[in-house]
Amino acid sequence: MSIILLTCTIILLLISSIYIILEYYADKESIRKSIATTGIIVASNSSAAVAFQSPQDAEEILQALKANKNIVSACIFDKSNNIFAKYPDSIPNKEFPSKPIKKGYYFEDNFLINFEPIVQQDFELGTLYIKTDLHFLYNQMRIKVLIALSLMAISLAIAFLLSYYLQKKISGPIVALEKTAKIISKDNDYSVRAIKASDDEIGSFTDAFNQMLHQIEVQNQQIISANEESLKLAAIVESSGDAIIGTSLDLNITSWNRSAEKLLGYTADEMIGISAVRILPENQQSKCLAVLEKLKDGSQEGSFETQFLTKDRQLVDISLAISLIKNSDGTIVGISKIARDISLQKQHERLIIENEEHLRLATQAAELGTFDTNLATGSINLDVRCRELLGLDAETAEIDYKSIYLNLHADDKKRIKSIIKSIATGIDLDSYDIEFRTVGQDKKVRWIRARGKILINEHQKPLRFIGAILDITNSKNEELRKNDFIAIISHELKTPLTTIRAYIQLLLRKALQENDNYRISALTKTESQAKKMITMIHSFLSLARIEDGKLHLLKEKFSLTTLIDEIVNDAILLNPSNKIVIENTADISIYADKDKIGQVLTNLISNACKYSSLNSTVTISCEKSNRKVKVCVKDEGIGISPKDQKKLFTRFYRVEHEQKKTVSGFGIGLFLVAEILHYHHSKIELDSIEGVGSTFHFTIDLA
Ligand code: ADP
């Protein structure tokens, strides 16, 4: 606005000044011309009056000058320069010039002076003097100046309005741009955009400005993310568990992270600027430099194992990864070294080698065979001894399950196959301790004990099955002989004991008839002890038979109701301090080995009494459903922990109870229960809560 107004003012001033000056001179000239014309006319009119020396006529002619109010005075000089006539009369002569000064017209002070010769036929008769007041000219000029000033003011006002309008049009968008620029510089927010107001140059300027902002924003974003990246990287480098060391091309250290400090004992301040060769033991220097050279020409990867020297001159085993640091145009500007302390790993490796050697010697001394099965690929790795024990050729490279089955003893084949299948399919993730027979290449039957463990991954998936096998033929034969011995002894003891029991019963009946209380009590106790012994001998006999695989069932149809009644009656006699209750047992017949099922029930009821407190209740109940009967023996005893529940049915397993330390037993009762039920195609099951009680139950077919 200022520029426009200033320009307009200067131009208007210039134009007005020129106009006024020109006007002034033009007006002056026109006055001069009009006065000259008047002079010429008056001079020629008065020539006759002068020639005839008639001052009245001359004054009369001068009176005509009245018509021009600005002519203040006039006179005619005669030939001898005396005033001949004057106008107006009132002006004294001394007010006129004493003689004509010079011919022509000139301006003097604020007057126009005119000396016009009066000529007749080339004779100069006198001179006409006219004095014209020029004040009117100045008044006129003043009015013109005023007009010019008014016009200038109007023009400036119009110029002001015009510039105000233009200012909005032109500087509006510029001001908006300026505001946008201010916001951006204040908030550093380059996502702000200026609004395009028009399609003219300013619009293009706004577009260019926005385009520039966009580029700045993109670059800014790139700078921010590059900064973030480098901060992240710096944090990673600093917090890395590996020592990370940066060097220049001439191996001077440029960066040294915290792990490097920890590993080598030097601080970053001590090491930056120092040659990295300092931390290399002498015997490793040439190796490292050679790797570096090969890395530079791209002929080798920069990872290898070496050693570093710590501040206190100790050697540490290091896995070192060297990489080249390149700038954006691919020029190598430095070297980065990542060093991982592998001294522990090296120590472990040495330990593993030692342990493997120990193991090898131990397995050799114990004549153990070892196996390692990869459950994912199915590949089987057996050592020489293992192959020998499994009856396999020592040379065969590929061994599969089939070749193992081939040499199993016919009686064990089915059992071992199903165990191997459940291991291979990952059904059972337990440890294994099994015994079986193999037929060797020498056709010798061997008893083998195999102990193995399944290794699983973090998702409980089986990975490997590893273990060892041992030839137990000798001890097995010993055991079989022992079993035979137990079987013979038990059998031999059973017959006299049964006779003893029969005599006791006879004597008891007699004592009852005679009402001899002392004998009744003594004989009752003797009979119960004899019964306990018979049960025990029965158990040993059954155990020996089961071990030998000679347990035979004598199945018959019998009333389970009656059997339960008989066993409970005996149990009441043997366990007078427990309350034994029968529920829902009426009218049940089954087809099974009566003696063996009796043994099962006797064992379960005797355990229920043994492992509960005095006066607690033991309940025997039955539940018929779908041609089967479920038999439950429930107690309110000490219960069994989940850990023990798993092993409860194995041979000679007894739970260690503080409060039941004195309870006698061999740990064969539940093993027999499980085996007998197994022979009946049934299964013993258990629900138990420690401190609340246990329920043992099994299901058997109805007759
Ligand atoms: P034992 O001759 O020791 O009774 P068993 O094979 O009959 O041998 O039982 C094995 C172990 O199981 C016992 O030592 C006992 O700890 C535990 N057990 C058996 N029955 C019960 C029961 N009803 N309540 C608590 N523990 C029991």
Overview of the molecule:
By secondary structure, the chain is an alpha+beta fold. Helices cover 50% and strands 23% of the residues. It has helices spanning 2-51, 55-63, 135-187, 201-239, 258-264, 268-271, 282-296, 343-366, 384-389, 401-406, 410-424, 473-514, 517-548, 560-574, 594-610, 642-647, 669-679, and strands spanning 71-77, 83-87, 104-108, 111-120, 123-133, 243-247, 253-256, 303-309, 315-326, 332-341, 369-374, 380-382, 432-439, 445-456, 462-471, 555-559, 579-583, 589-593, 617-625, 628-634, 685-689, 693-701. A five-stranded antiparallel β-sheet has the order 2-1-5-4-3. α13 packs across α17 (669-679) and α14 (560-574) runs parallel beside α15. The two termini are 121 Å apart. The site of adenosine-5'-diphosphate has 20 residues, from α15 and α17.
Widest beta sheet: strand line-up = 2-1-5-4-3
Mean pLDDT: 88
Attached small molecules: adenosine-5'-diphosphate
Secondary structure: helix percent: 40-55%
Features:
single chain, 5-stranded antiparallel beta sheet, binds adenosine-5'-diphosphate, 23% strand, rod-shaped, 17 helices, alpha+beta, 703 residues
What's the short version?
With 703 residues, the protein is of the alpha+beta class.
